[in-house]
Every structure is written in structure tokens, then in C-alpha cells.
Design a protein that fits this description.
5-stranded antiparallel sheet, single chain, 2 helices
Length: about 120
């Protein structure tokens, strides 16, 4: 009787190990590349750019909060962080804006970048 219980416990542990190993080995999906304005697109590829290099992206701004806003460039929506001292005078939800930033954009939000300025475009 005790031998059967031990066999079940060992089988459960082995099965759990196999499931965890399989889940850890699954490949991750490629992240989409953000579309950039022509000025930024002319710069070196995103993997070669430096964290401090300024880039721009144009789109429609929405959901403006004290610490972030969302920019939709027509293909993807990006969350831009802002600090509490960042001024966006005269900019409202729905405005077409050009955002200057440093770092790398990501739709998943797992990269670091800094918002430099936000300007209305006509």
C-alpha cells in the first residue's frame, strides 16, 4: 500500500517538472517594431541606437493622466511615461501631436524610455 502511494507522489512530481520545463522552453513572440516619423526612420536601426538619442513619433494623444498618456500612431498604441513636473499646456485628448523621446518604444511596455516633449501638429 505504501509503495503505491510513493509511486503516485513520484509520478505527480515528475509530471509537474515536465509541465514546468515545457512552459519555460516555449518561444516568445517577436515584438512589433513601432512606426516612426521619417526623421527617426533615417537614423540607425533601433537595435543600434543609443538610449540618449532623441527620436520622434506622431499620433493622436488620449487618456492623459498625471504620470502617463497614450499615443496612437494609427498602427499601435504606446504608453508614454511623464513625471509630475512635465507640462503639456494646451494639449487635450484627441489632439494630433509629435512626441520626442529617448530609448526604445514597446507596445508591451517592457522597455525604458523618457518623454522629452509633446507638441501639437496641424
Amino acid at each position: 500500500m505504501e509503495d503505491k502511494v510513493m509511486r503516485k507522489i513520484v509520478m505527480i512530481i515528475l509530471t509537474a517538472g515536465l509541465l514546468l520545463g515545457t512552459a519555460a522552453c516555449q518561444s516568445k513572440e517577436d515584438k512589433p517594431t513601432p512606426s516612426l516619423t521619417p526623421e527617426a526612420a533615417e537614423s540607425p536601426s533601433t537595435s543600434e541606437t543609443k538610449q540618449g538619442e532623441e527620436k520622434t513619433i506622431t499620433g493622436k494623444i488620449s487618456d492623459i493622466k498625471n504620470v502617463m498618456f497614450i499615443l496612437d500612431d494609427g498602427k499601435e498604441a504606446y504608453v508614454f511615461p511623464i513625471d509630475e513636473n512635465f507640462k503639456m499646456d494646451g494639449i487635450q485628448d484627441g489632439d494630433q501631436v509629435q512626441v520626442t523621446y529617448t530609448g526604445e518604444l514597446s507596445v508591451t511596455g517592457d522597455t525604458e524610455f523618457t518623454t522629452i516633449k509633446v507638441e501639437k501638429v496641424n
